[in-house]
Amino acid sequence: MLYFAIISSPKENEHTKTEKSPLLESYIARTAEGDTEALASLYEQTKGAVYGFALSVLKNTHDAEDVLQDTYIRIYNYAHTYKPSGNPMAWMLEITKNLSYMLLRKKSREGTSPDDESERSFTDDFSYSTDEQLSVTEAMLKLSDDERQIITLHAVTGLKHREIARLLGMPLATVLSKYNRSIKKLQKILEE
Hints:
By secondary structure, the chain is an all-alpha fold. It has helices at residues 2-8, 21-32, 36-58, 61-78, 88-110, 130-141, 145-155, 161-168, 172-191.
């Protein structure tokens, strides 16, 4: 089943390969010095992961796009505070997470809820047929928020389970069990 492969193993992105971390860190360092071309390069290398994670939290393409833009503005303004740790994606996704939750709290206070849009897709970053993308999107929407975030962070951004646990503030064992249960749940949904 081809479309199950979309979500069951991490996608090979430019930023998932460990040898790319120094490159991303150099972009952040140059951004801290005001280099907008470095920020543009960082954006091109990481926008899919940042958008995918924001979408998994917000479940709304417009809000995810807003958070995507706000994340890179925040990166530009705070790049000087980044301490090289070997995983710049974790730092960037922490910013994305914080902005996403701030937006959710703001909407909650205002009494508005995220629009339920049929156009959202958790698989836009993959090159599979529309039918396969729709099947995976529908299956992803049947997962809980935690399950969807863990799957997205692992499959789309390529983060390791330990990094996901740190990012989401969960024990590693919880992340591993939720990931495994989610994969089984998705497999069952997609086989129906």
